[in-house]
Design goal:
The protein has 296 residues and is of the alpha+beta class. The chain contains ten helices and ten strands.
C-alpha cells in the first residue's frame, strides 16, 4: 500500500461535532519502521488513529494493546502512550490530530442542537482514551479522504470536511459500547500552529530545548510561554521537558543496548552524574537498576 501524499499545512479545516468545534491540525498516513516514543497531548488535544495494515503494540497509561488491521483508537489529553511496530510486519496508520473547542453561542442565536447531537461532544470529552475494532467501515472513508486531499480537485475542501465529520462521528458512535475512563471538561486552547509546535518540540526537540527557544518558535515572551505550557500540560516548562527526557531515557534503556552514558548524552544531559541524579529522582531507582528490573 503506497502512502498517499497529503498536505493540509495551509488548509484550515474546522468541524462542528455536537457542541464542539474541532480544529484539525493535521491528517497523515504513513508506515511505522521505528517506535513512536512515549508522549501525551495537552488539554483539548486528540489524535484519532486507524490501522489499515500491519501489526504493532500500543502502550497507553501502562496497558498494552495489540494493533492489527482494523484497530481504531483515540488518545486524548494527558494519556501517556507509545506505539511499537512489529519488525516483521510494520503497521501503517491514518492519523487525525485535532483540538476540541467549545462553540461560542452568539447572542440571540436561534439555532439549538438536539440532545443526540450534544451527546457526541459529551462522549468525546468524557472519553480521553478508547480502543477497539472498527465496526463502521472507516477504512473506505479514510481512503476517500486521502484521495481528496492528495488530488485537490474542485470541491475537495467541502468533501474533506464532510468526510472528516463522518469519520469523527462514526468513531464516537462506537464509544457508546464502552464506558468512559476519565472525565474532562471542555476548555479553550491556544492558537493552532502554536499548539502543534509545542507538541512537536517536546516530542522531538526536548534534548536541547530551552524556554527561550520555544518562546521564539511560537512568537511569545518567555513568561507567556511558561504560562501557556502550564495551562496546556499542568506542568512548568522545566518539568515538562524533564518528563520528555525521562520517558525517552526509559525507552532507550529498555529497547537498546546503549551504555547509560550514551543514554544520558542522547537525552540532553551534559554529565552522567546529572543524568543519574535526575533519573533516580524521577523513577526511584538508578538507570542500571531500571534496565535490569524491567528486562526480567
Amino acid at each position: 500500500m503506497r502512502p498517499p501524499f497529503i498536505d493540509i499545512d495551509h488548509i484550515a479545516i474546522k468541524l462542528e461535532v455536537g457542541e464542539l468545534l474541532l480544529n484539525v491540525l493535521f491528517f497523515k498516513y504513513g508506515y511505522f519502521h521505528e517506535s513512536v516514543r512515549e508522549h501525551s497531548h495537552s488539554r483539548g488535544s486528540y489524535e484519532l488513529h486507524y490501522i489499515p495494515t500491519g501489526k504493532g503494540t500500543l502502550i497507553a497509561d501502562g496497558e498494552r494493546y495489540p494493533l492489527t488491521p482494523g484497530t481504531l483508537f483515540v488518545t486524548g489529553p494527558h494519556i501517556v502512550h507509545e506505539q511499537i511496530p512489529d519488525t516483521d510486519d510494520p503497521m501503517a496508520e491514518y492519523c487525525v490530530f485535532f483540538e476540541a473547542l467549545p462553540i461560542e453561542t452568539r447572542p440571540n442565536e436561534g439555532k439549538r442542537r438536539s440532545r443526540k447531537e450534544a451527546a457526541l461532544s459529551d462522549l468525546l470529552i468524557a472519553t480521553p482514551f478508547w480502543i477497539g475494532t472498527d465496526k463502521e467501515n472507516l477504512l473506505a472513508l479514510f481512503d476517500m479522504l486521502a484521495h481528496e486531499l492528495s488530488a485537490k480537485r474542485i470541491g475537495f475542501y467541502h468533501m474533506a470536511t464532510n468526510l472528516l465529520e463522518m469519520i469523527v462521528t462514526r468513531t464516537i458512535r462506537q464509544y457508546a459500547e464502552h464506558g468512559p475512563s476519565r472525565l474532562h471538561a471542555p476548555v479553550k486552547t491556544m492558537d493552532d500552529s502554536r499548539l502543534l509546535t509545542i507538541e512537536n518540540c517536546f516530542l522531538y526537540e526536548y534534548h536541547s530545548l530551552t524556554l527561550k527557544q520555544l518562546a521564539d518558535k511560537i512568537g511569545l515572551s518567555t513568561r507567556q510561554t511558561e504560562r501557556t505550557v502550564r495551562k496546556q500540560y499542568g506542568l512548568s516548562f522545566k518539568d515538562k521537558r524533564q518528563q520528555s527526557r525521562m520517558s525517552d531515557a526509559a525507552r532507550l534503556l529498555l529497547s537498546t543496548d546503549l551504555p547509560v552514558s550514551a543514554v544520558a548524552a542522547n537525552t540532553g544531559f551534559a554529565t552522567l552524574e546529572h543524568f543519574g541524579r535526575s533519573f533516580k529522582q524521577y523513577y526511584g531507582v538508578t538507570a542500571s537498576q531500571y534496565r535490569s528490573q524491567e528486562k526480567r
